[in-house]
Amino acid sequence: MQDETLTLEDVLFEELEIIGAMEAGEARDYIIPYSLEKHQQEFMKPAIIYKTIRHGENPAGFVMLAIDPDGVSVELRRIVVSQPGHGIGVRALEAVRELCRHELGKSRIWLDVFEANYRARHVYEKMGYACFGKTEHAGRTLLLYEILV
Predict the structure, then answer these.
(1) Is 130 exposed, middle or buried (0-12, 13-18, 19+ CB in 10 A)?
(2) Is-above-0.85 flag for pTM?
């Protein structure tokens, strides 16, 4: 892909159907997908932030963040990239880190990732995230990662 600008832009309520469609693609095996109704409910919560990943003029994915009540942490609840393997996810993670540090004033990002999602784990570790625990979901192991920003 060309070296175009990557930005994170606010998602509009009307765009949640597009978010659901992105989740139903290749990402469905690596996330716990939400129904449109669940996305609509989450979107209305003040502590939930949806951002479109825009690569140049084109939407290239989305992120969903949840501000933790601890006052210092943000959960990276979702990152979905429409065309994995082109470096967009790495650049989006850098943008999320800047957003959390400068706009949200938070000092820690954490996430969970399925143990079998080797591509995502590689990217998180490359970006400096460290595994700090694990949990289970529907018989599958989720690894917990964090980074200080």
Answers:
(1) exposed
(2) yes
